[in-house]
Amino acid sequence: MRVPGPVKPQGDHMDFGLNFFPVMEPGRKSARDYYDETLRLSRLAEERGFEHVQTVEHYGSGYGGYSPDPVTLLTAVAAVTDRIRITTGAVIPAFTHPLKLAGKLAMLDNLSGGRLDVGFGRGFLPDEFDWFGVPMAESRERFDEGIEACRRLWSEENVVFSGKFSSFGPVTLQPRTVQQPHPPIFVASATSPESCAAAGTAGYHLQVVPSVTSREQLSEMLAAYREAWAAAGHAEGGARIQIKYTCYVAEDGGHALALAERFETNYIEQMTGAIAAWATTRSAAYPGYEGFIDKVKQYDFEKSLRQNKVFAGTPEAVAEQVATIGEWFGTDLCVSLQFSPGYQDFEDSHRALTLFADRVMPRFRH
After folding, report:
1. Taking the CB of residue 194, how many other CB atoms lie within 10 A of it?
2. Where does the sequence pass through the membrane (predicted)?
3. Which residue of 87, 123, 150, 267 is 20 to 30 Å from 20, comparing CA positions?
4. From CA 271, how far away is CA 64, in angstroms rounded?
């Protein structure tokens, strides 16, 4: 049995995790090579004291398509590590029956020795909803129902569930989760203070991505979450917030910045293709998303760097960026970093992770 990594209140202490989001065309790097590099970097992250490894769920494009099942990839990560936490960032309940999803995640909790954190997301790509035959208008209800069904299956026996989209039972899920009453639950939120507040009220943890929102809006989201958590009477200091960035670090700051501009541009190109359907899609469940393409087309790397939406430069420059986002958003964060963006060479990713661990992380470990 592997030893689970700690789940600790973060308080005045910033933690760091490792995030994988495969954004590349198959001709640039094979899936086999990508998975091999993911496992190698995950082992290195554990050796260097990172808190978690996480990955996404996407389908059918260069925008995350190498990770159609986070549970499969994270099971492989769990098999080659001992302590680091294993995190879905996130699974999409709308695309999987809750009995199957809860069962797969319970297996992963057991295989990892109780190291699983479960992040749930709504999904936002019209093509993916079309491919699964799921109306986007149902995404919020399916999201809420899926989380509730999984939570009950993990924590109760003889579950009888009667929802709008699935009904089953009585059933007692096997295997039972190692973590009781269930693994920590995270909710991924893109732009909504209301969804952040709902997560805080429910006692769920939070995953956010600064690249898709403004500093002011993200501050509002986090404030709503923290206030709702406290108002609901949950344990002080118990809320866990994961905030996600890509990170490029090199002794030669110019080299790091060149990599950053190249692979952030690649990200935008792949994302533009994945969201193309928003040009003709309208959904009351996703207000404002019809303007998503225009917003992405206005991307400016230098502006993104100035706004600290991407970390890039020497270790000292990146440490200053991390300190700044701590001042903006709080030091009770776990900063989840992608060191292997796009089809970047493994050597550059390995060096960035190592330099960050050796020369940036110690500054924030009190």
Report:
1. 11
2. none
3. 150
4. 9
Please give the single-letter amino acid code of residue 338. Q
Choose among 169, 172, 228: nearest CA to 202: 228
Q: Could you tell me the CA-to-CA distances from 362 to 11, 134, 312 in Å, in that order?
A: 16, 46, 18
Which residues have a Cβ under 8 Å from the Cβ of 118 and sit 6 or more positions away?
Answer: 87, 88, 91, 105, 150, 183, 184, 185, 186
Q: Nearest 5°: phi and psi at 210?
A: -65, -25
The single-letter code of the amino acid at 252 is D
CA torsion angle for 317, 319, 321, 323 (degrees, to 10)? -140
Say how far apart CA 311 and CA 304 lie, in whole Å. 9
Give the start-end residues of each E strand in 190-346.
205-208, 241-249, 311-313, 333-338
Q: Does residue 49 contact residue 353 with C-beta atoms inside 8 Å?
A: no
Q: Which CATH architecture best describes the domain 15-364? A: Alpha-Beta Barrel (3.20)
Q: What type of residue is 165?
A: F
Closest CA to 203 of 244, 231, 161, 243: 231
- Token code pair at residue 103: 């069962």
Whole-model pTM: value is 0.94
Nearest C-alpha neighbor of 34 from the set 43, 45, 22: 22
Count of other CB atoms within 10 angstroms of residue 25: 15
What's the CA gap between 2 and 17, in Å, rounded? 19
3-class DSSP state for residue 334?
strand
Q: What confidence tens digit (pLDDT) does each residue in 8-35 have?
A: 434 457 999 999 999 999 999 999 999 9
Residue 93, token pair as written in the block: 């309940």
Is residue 203 within 8 A of residue 229, CB to CB? The reply is yes
